[in-house]
Fold each of these.
Amino acid sequence: MNKMIDLRSCSIKELEDLSIELGDKKFRGKQIFSWIYKGIEDIDDMKNISKGLKNQLKQVSYIKNMDILKVLKSKLDGTRKYLLILKDGNIIESVLMKYKHGNTICVSTQVGCRMGCTFCASTIDGVVRNLTCGEIIGQVLEVQKDIGERISNVVLMGSGEPLDNYGQVIKFLSIINDSLGLNIGMRNITLSTCGIVPKLIDLAEENIQITLAISLHAPNDELRNKIMPVNKVYNIEKLLETCKNYTKKTNRRITFEYSLIRGVNDKKEHAIELAQRLKGMLCHVNLIPLNEVEERSLKGSARETAYDFQKILKQNGIDATIRRELGGDIEAACGQLRKSFIEKKKIPNIKPQN
Ligand code: SAH
């Protein structure tokens, strides 16, 4: 039996080809595409499509590719954390944050993660599988429907490493950016990566106007090797060189993410060393005290330490902000909610296939 097609994973071109294959006109592809992004979940709701084509579509494809399992709403700031269940039973999480400038969703790009950062909950059990582009888009559509408001900004900062799922992530960006899709401007999209250098080089070649965030978290290789295994493959020098070339190509300012871990990377000398390394780059540092993860022994730095760290960076000519922590009362750290849910409910996490 042929596999059913996930319509949320299809580009306009693929839907045009499908329409022709099903014996209809090419232009139906665009119509089907725009229905999907109006948020319908049932093929029967495609009003300008003939009954015949709808019946054919139903035989080979579907729209809804996940269900909301649970929503946690923060009483502090309106942040909502979603647990979503995919068709194969895997569970992923997304977060909705309400800002003055609009609704922002943080999406996952993989089930789990294989990057092994020592402070992160997403990577504890490794990666299960990549998400398809339709499953990344599904998160935006489901949350948008749940809140009944448009989502204007997307950050790829949920579970998973976006550049470890490069093809699907690039397709996702182009579909949500499309004016017939979700029409989300590239400048309203942030992609965060731990720094897979060859893929960063490819990303620069795409020459798109997204904001690139690099999870740096340490000013030197000795320390970064200890907390981020990816650094043993692509060290800080290679990473920063690639970032400089990225900016040359795209003219975009890069954000460096720096989670402050108590007694590990938050000392005065770390701030000075970080400022020296970033000197002259078109960049900005985002500081955030570590979100404590139950399974990890690491602690977040105190607020005052974060302010001191920021002050040193600024004194040394590096622009820095302290990120506001949202959803502090709803297990906000990356991968935390999914992990605790799977364990408490004893839902077997589906194992990776070799
Ligand atoms: N894999 C990508 C994106 C997912 S993680 C990346 O590494 O950038 C999103 C951000 O949250 C990264 O900067 C990551 O380092 C950070 N992060 C993960 N766990 C965290 C925690 N417990 N506290 C604070 N930041 C954390």
Amino acid sequence: MPTDAAQLTLAQKASLVTGSSFWSTQPIPDAGVASVTMTDGPHGVRRQQQGTDHLGLHHAEPATCFPPAVAVGSSWSAEVAARVGAALAVESRALGVGVLLGPGINIKRSPLGGRNFEYYSEDPLLSGELASAYVRALQAGGVGASLKHFAANDQETDRMTISSDVDERTLREVHLSAFERVVTDAAPATVMCSYNRINGVYASENHWLLTEVLREEWGYEGAVVSDWGAVRDRVRSLEAGLDLAMPGPQGLQAQAIVDAVESGRLDVAVVDRAAERVLGLQRWQPDAASAFDVDAHHELARELAAECAVLLRNDGEVLPLAGGSRILVTGEFAIDPRYQGGGSSHVNATRVDAPFEGIEAFGAARGCEVRFERGFDSADTATADALRDAAVAAAAEADVAIVFAGNPESEESEGFDRTRLELAAEQVLLIREVAAAAPRTVVVLANGGVVSLEGWHDEVDAILEGFLLGQGGGHALAELLFGVVSPSGRLAETIPLRLEDTPSHLTFPGEQGHVRYAEGVMVGYRHYTTVGAPVRYPFGHGLGYTRFATSDVVVTATGPDAIAVEVTVANVGELAGKHVVQLYLHTDAGPVRRPARVLAAFTKVALDPGTSTRVRLELDRRVLAYWDVELHRFVVATGDYTVQLCADAVTVLDQATIALEGDGIVAGLTLQSTVGEWIAHPVAGPEIVNALMALSAAAGSQAQAADIDLSAGIPDIVGLMPMVQLVHLSGGGLDGDHLLALAAGPALPHPSA
Ligand code: GLC
């Protein structure tokens, strides 16, 4: 195999940086270069041997459908994410795949996002930590990852053309943050650039994104691959830093590269650089003879799914289900489960557990009488009344009714966004009428993005949010309903009361080719907690069947920009369970508006009843910092930082405040700084006050410099004025360059001090 691209001809290099077929790169046998096969991901291997597509339409080889990211995100467990990654490495190699196209880590900016099922969270730290665990495990298993979709591809509407218009601080602190964390922590083999534009420039041609940020700032050394069909101009994309255009074959694109180099329009070094990075993928070659254990992976899918579901409500502890109960199960998802999303991630599952089968089995073992009524048929609403009546009648004869509801695949998928938050009307009607008839009612949800619980929430006793749990989800839900496993999931996306309350509501999904991220850094819970808006269930919420207590919180500064926290967690209930320690950070330090709190660190612990453990978590500087748009860098400001131990984003259990020295950066004064900021400067301030007096004297005022009480400040109308304006108004009384020299010079004590 060539040690560098320089040994290849221009034509060979041009073919190397352009896909050879829909799923593979160009082999160059006489140079010892093998083809590298890549395919989707992210929660199962979608290996197509015949017809190919990037929408999940054609046949794919059977593979395990593990819990999609929406479920893994709700597990809040890096271990769960890692175990998915490790298992996918085994299946990828068995199916001849060298690079698996995942994980997807875009931010759930709106609950209507069609691909929210394929992303982890509304929070970049949770997304980044889980994705890093997945990437490390996948690559440790010998398969490369593809971190996607870089960047700000947070909706499906017009995804191929729309411009995500995002200010720099919001990009850095939210929409690039998870990518930065995974790139620097886990070094994914590839990063997949998205279809959309960022501030008007296509990601595939965005030099700032693909080279200045990804390479020069973050030090990324892998290959940047395009989303399928995202490249519009191959030469421009090469110059921006896009190494591999997929899919192939793209003969015209390869020829365009050769022509551009030969005409002098493109430096061959740019082609060499891209070819080098694509050659770096040679290491990801599956071993031909490997296979995977279908049954063992199915059991694993079940086990992991049980750790993802979120118990939202459990009034009267109706769950876990009691032995000997008469149970009515209704809703088509009980027998025909929704367990994954539509589009390129769609897996040809080796088998699928239906919840009803599990409920029957566990119920029978506990002396329960279990009955099923369909309740509704999303393919044939004409039968809705009859099906509902039958379910209601059966509910009246049961001790507890379990209603399976959620979003049909026709309502949420890659390629389009949802248009409503509510469940289908026939489902809401079924829930309400069953709840009116049954002594106790449990609702089990299957949905990729959060749904509204309004209009029926108070009428039911328990709600188990399953999201989409993969092929083992049906069995897992049965285990959770009967208490074989205690629920331990936590919301990774807020459940709002109304769509209108969501921070992106006024701008999602955009208009006339632009979507403005007007909420800025206030995405999800950051918005609700900062404005004090009520939600149905907050980010981080989740119940279980046992009780945990936390104590002995110790917060220490481990550096000018780092904090360590120790907490004791005890299982004070009667059942084994898992608890998520959630630490948030509140600070007003720095010259910017900070969210009321942001997730700062988390970990999940498993404890038997009566046992405890002490955990230590580190808050890294990225969590403490804000992005300074004047300095164009992250800054940890000097000031007080309050670490909050929370049960969820709105429930603070304990907190401690600590002062941090930070980076010791004092934002420099510029002529755009306000007069008030300048007057506070010990040397420049008095000169400015004198100039103000001279100005007011010239205007006929009798006030003298001595009359101005600096401690009282000056009228806002002046103080908030940019200095450049006062310099102009002073008619020479103030010299901008002189002031800047004063500000840059030693801050001598004020003469009147
Ligand atoms: C799709 C998706 C991307 C996927 C690729 C290949 O359009 O956006 O996530 O990996 O094409 O199927």
